[in-house]
Amino acid sequence: MAEERVTEVQSPDGDTHTHTTVITDGGKSGGGGVLLIAVLIIIALVIGVWAFNKYGGAEANKDNAVANAANQVGDAAQKAGDAAQDAANNTAH
User: Fold this and answer.
1) What domain range is 20 assigned to?
2) Over 70: is that where the pLDDT of 18 sits?
3) Under a CB-based contact definition with an 8 Å cutoff, are residues 9 and 17 in contact?
4) Is pLDDT above 80 for 2?
5) What is the mean pLDDT of the chain?
6) How many structural domains compose the chain?
7) Residues contacting residue 34 through CB under 8 Å, at least 6 positions apart
8) Could you tell me if residue 89 is inside a domain?
9) Rounded to whole angstroms, how far apart are CA atoms 58 and 89?
10) What is the dihedral of CA 68, 73, 76, 80, to 10 degrees?
11) Is the dihedral of CA 33, 34, 37, 39 positive or negative?
12) What's 83's DSSP letter?
């Protein structure tokens, strides 16, 4: 917003001199604060994606390890069952 000030000065001779002064406020800034906030948001997003990729994979690895252990237990149970069946067949003859 601009403010205009008009000053009139009258000399002893009767002449009138007018002086106009225009005062403006600072106006809009260059937007450096907005740029800084945008950069901080981008950095936070990059860190979030990195952390998700690093630690999100740990959950999948844990699930895979549990599944592999369950498969191994199942295989061992199958072998034990087969051995028991073979033993039962051998004693019956």
Assistant:
1) 2-79
2) yes
3) yes
4) no
5) 83
6) 1
7) none
8) no
9) 46
10) -160
11) negative
12) H
**Cα distance between residue 83 and residue 93, in whole Å:** 16
Contacts (Cβ under 8 Å, ≥6 apart) of 4: 20, 21, 22, 23
CA 9, CA 16: separation in Å to the nearest integer?
6
Per residue in 22-51, pLDDT tens? 887 766 666 678 888 889 999 999 999 888
CA 37, CA 32: separation in Å to the nearest integer?
9
Q: For the chain, what percent of residues have pLDDT higher than 70?
A: 90
Rounded Cα gap, residues 49 and 38, in angstroms: 17
Specify if 91 maps to a domain.
Answer: no
> Which band of pLDDT confidence, cut at 50, 70 and 90, is reported for residue 61?
confident
pLDDT for res 17: 84
Is 7 contained in some domain? yes
Instruction: Measure the CA dihedral 68/74/80/81, to 10°.
Output: -160
* Residue 93 falls inside a structural domain: no
